[in-house]
Amino acid sequence: MDYTFQWGVAFSHLPYLLGGALVTLHLTFFGFVIGLLIGLVASVLQAYGGSVLRSLASGYIVFFTNTPSLVTAFFLFFGLPEFGILLSPYECILINLALNAGAFLADVFRGGIASVRQVELEAAEVLGFSLVQKVRYVIVPHISKACYPPISNLYIIFILGSAMASIFGVEELTGRAFNIDSETFRSIEIYSITAGIYVLLTFFANVLLTLVGRYVFRVKARIF
Amino acid sequence: MFELAAEQAGMFFTWPNLGYWGRAMITTLTMAALGCGFGFIFAFLLVYFRTWPLKAMIPVRIILTLYVEVFRRIPFLVLTFLVLFGTRGFGFRFSLFSVACLTILLISTAYIAEIIRAGFESIHPNQWEAAAVLNFGRFKTIFGVIAPQSWPLIIPPAFSYFVMFVKETSLTSQIGALELMSAGKYFNSIGISPLLAFGTCLSLYFALSYPLTLLGHRIEKKLKLRFKGKIVKSHEISLIDRNKSHQVAN
Questions:
Q1: Interface confidence (ipTM) of the complex
Q2: Do B78 and A187 count as a contact with CB atoms less than 8 A apart?
Q3: B70: nearest CA in chain A?
C-alpha cells in the first residue's frame, strides 16, 4: 500500500502547534518549580526529621518513584471527584507532575545532602562561620554542584513526560496534535512535526540549562 | 466515596478478574523486557560502531549520533502514535503488542546507547592504548578489555532504565495494547469505582516496580564491590582468560 504524504496540510497548522509548545513549557515549568519545593522539603525531612516524618517522607518518595505518572494522574483525575474535589484537567496534571517531580527530585537532593562531608562542616565551625555563612558558603555550593546535572536531566525527561497531559484533554503540544489529527487525518505528518518540535524544544532547553550550569554553578558539561 | 468501592469489592476481587489482572501484568513485563533486552543488544552494536575511530566511519557516526539525539527527545506517547500510524500507513499490520514493543525498542536503544557510551568513556585511555599496543583488533579491544571493565558502570543505570520502561508502558494503553493500565481503564469503564480500579492498578505497578528497584540497588552494590576491590585484577583476568599468549604484567 502506498501512502501519499501531504506535508502542506500539516504545516498549515504549525502556529497552532507552536502555541501548544508554549503550554507544554509553562505546564512543565510550574510543575517542576513546585516539585523542587516539595522535593527539598521531603529530602530535608528524610535527612533530619523525626521517625514519623522520616518514614512519611520516604513513603512518599518510594510510592511516587515506583508508580507510573499516568496511573497516578488517572487516580487523581477520576478519584478526586469522588471526594467532592473538582479540578480542571490542567490543575490536575500540574498537581500530578509536581508530586512526581517532587519524589524524583527528593531522591536527587538526598544524594546532594550526602555529598556534604562532615569534615567540611567542622572546618567551617573552626573558622567561626555562623549558620547562615555555613549554609551560604559550604552547604549550598556543594549541593547545587552535585544536584544540578541530574536536575537538568530530569527537567528534560519531564518535558517529554508531560505529553501524557493530552490524554486528559489539556491542550498542550501533543493534545493539539490530537486535535489536528482528528480533523485532517494526516497522522504521520502531524506526529512527525510534533516529534520534531519536541526534539527542538528539548534541545534548546538542554543548551540553555548547560550554559546556566556552566556560568552559574560551575558545572562542566558538554552539550552533546 | 468509599461506600461504592467497599460495595463493589466483593464482586471485583473474583478469580476471573484476578486472572485478567495477572495476564495484564505479565504483558506489561514482557513488553518492557523484550523492548529493553533487544534494545540493549542494538545499543551495544550502535556504540560499537559509533566509537570506532576510523575516517571511513565518519558518516556512520553522524547517522548514529543523530539517531540517538533525536530518539532520546521524542515523547513515548508521540512515538507510539508515530509507529502505529507509520506501520499501518505503509500496509504493515503489526499487532498492537508488537507496535508497543517496537516503540520501546526504538527509544530504549537510544537511551541505553548513551549509558554504554558513558561507560566506555569512563575507561582510562591507557587501556585503549594498551590494547592497541598489543595489536588487538576492534572486536578484541571492546569485548576483551573495555566491556568487562565498564559493566559495573553500565548495568545499574541500564537496569533502572528498564524499571522506568516498565512504568512507561502504561502509555501504550492509549493505542489499545492490553496491559495493566488498560485493564484499569476497562474495569473503570464497566462501572467499577475509579478508586478501586485505578487503586488496584497503582498497587500492581508498585508490586512490579518496587522489587525490581530493590534488585537494581542490590546489583549496583555487588558490582561496585567487585569494581572497587579488583580494579586492576579484573581486567588482568579478562585479558589472560581470553588470550593465553598475552600475559600482561600488572
A1: 0.89
A2: no
A3: A199
